[in-house]
Fold this protein.
Amino acid sequence: MAIGSKGRPIKTPNRAVMTTDSNGSQHTLYYAHDPMCSWCWGFRPTWEQIQQKLPDTITTQYVLGGLAPDTTQPMPEPMQQMLQQTWHQIAQTLPGTQFNHAFWTQNKPRRATYPACRAVLAGKSQDIAFEEPMISAIQQAYYLNARNPSDDEVLIELASQIGCDVTLFKESLNAESTNEELMQQIHFARKLGAQGFPSLFFEAIGKTPIPLTLSYSDNACVFEQIDLALGT
């Protein structure tokens, strides 16, 4: 059982292998995201509600979109200011969403989210049960604890905290196979039509995935669209 952003246990559905026709017996709800996407952090409570309410006939599948590739260069000051403004905007738009703005003074920010994406895959490679806890750990470290998930040492520490085998995690984090899987997921997210994060897509059995309009504060609209797609 995974732990949600506010410490609540959340349902961890079974997930299919990434494909455009998941397993032939269940419909699929794809969630395109990035663990360092601030709007994904704001959407997390609603996403947890959606997962809890999904029937057993629908499986969920995370798809990493990869906001920003690897870099060793400091984040330009204008981008830092833009992201800080985005955090304030999200907090105002979605009451209850918390950000620790000390991040910007306690770290040397880099515009690199691929390391965090690979960390999700490295944890998942040990056991799919580590996927959601790793995403949550990265988000909480970044947004609440002012840690920098662009740094490998932070990601390794988080892997240890959620119970991963740290030796295996270190081997997987920057392995070529892990990076190749990330590139495949980024390609798949684009193929689905994701142009920003978070994005949701619903694939009924035997059908082409369709985009869903999401609300950051109301999960009902997602189920209405799924019902419409299923003709129920």
Notes: Confidence is low (pLDDT under 50) at residues 1-22. The domain at 11-230 is CATH 3.40.30.10 (Glutaredoxin).
